[in-house]
Known about the structure:
The protein is an alpha+beta fold. It folds into two domains: 1-172 and 322-374, no CATH class; 190-282, Chitinase A, domain 3 (Roll), CATH 3.10.50.40. It has helices at 31-41, 80-111, 118-131, 136-147, 151-169, 177-188, 202-214, 219-226, 230-233, 249-257, 294-320, and strands at 69-73, 76-79, 192-199, 267-268, 274-282, 323-325, 330-332, 348-351, 358-360. A three-stranded antiparallel beta sheet has the order 3-5-4, with helices on both faces. Helix 2 packs parallel to helix 5 and helix 5 crosses helix 11. The longest helix has 32 residues, at 80-111.
Amino acid sequence: MGEGNHLAPVATTxxxxxxxxxxxxxxxxxxxxxxxxxxxxMQTFRSQPGQAAESAGTAKLGTTAAKPNLARVGKDSVxxxxxxxxxxxRYGKEVLDDLINRMLILQACEAAxxxxxxxxxxxxxxxxxxxxxxxxxxxxxxxxxxRNITPMQYRQSVIWPMLALKKLAGQQVDLTEEEMNxxxxxxxxxRVKARLILLDNPRRARECWEQAAQNPDTFEKLAQDFSIDxxxxxxxxxxxPIPRYSGNDxxxxxxxxxxxxxISGLIELQSGRYAILKCEGRTEQVVSTIDEVxxxxxxxxxxxxxQEAVAKVFENIKKTTQIDNYLxxxxxxxxxxxxxxAAGGIQQTSGQGASGRTGVRPATATAPRAxxxx
Length: 374
């Protein structure tokens, strides 16, 4: 493992709250579970010279030190292997996926002579915390309370992979003035206030549109009775104001043609669904010129485009690296390098004939990204 690419464990901060929340990418909840299960699976990582374990008396990963008993109940001992086996059975897939993803990125970094230091990780944590007017310690505490993520997990499985992938993406991020202008209109330009009826049956959509066109005052009741969108239906079809360049061209085009009180035609969306709009006016433009918000807009767009570039780099790494997962009996990558006999065989899901490549169910792996509490 290249110097600086492996982070020593970081002291965690005890937080009383442990509410079940949405998990951040590639994590398994619970500090103790990760540490114990990680000790089992992380044997696969190559040892890092000069980085001893933080706790006194704990052997470095990758060594063959004797495994201690972890508890005694009456006359019986609870052995390390008993706990490890239980952890792997319960959480092994999540922990293994995390380690596979980090190892993929680490190998790509070594091939490209890229490294990420602990100082860079610490600086990035500080930068993110500052955006929320918090110091790093308070930020760690918030993550642990809201997302059940320890500082070690956050540094090793979110921040380090993200910084590494950003470096691997290199100069792939580019931003044009046209993109800046579109983002300005999208974020700060006028929007159409509207109610929406969403339907998934063309005949019913036509009937509903005819009723709305004949009597626009019934639009709210029609939305409550027929719309398949549960959020807006409960509000009589009320939706957030529609901006330009938000990603749904058909809906935007129809919305910005309407005057207050008008009913749109039947709008066929890309999803195969149908929308009917009733215009209720326009919002006022919040900011008059792009120069007033250029710096913050540039930072926002660069972050978004960097995330896109990072995702592409990570997907390419996965496609070009053979991964044989014995735990889930799956294999991904450019070719099938083994028979899977050691794990009882690899589960095939498809084939590609003459090419000789065998398709198998891929293991879950998602490009990591910096996380913020919801």
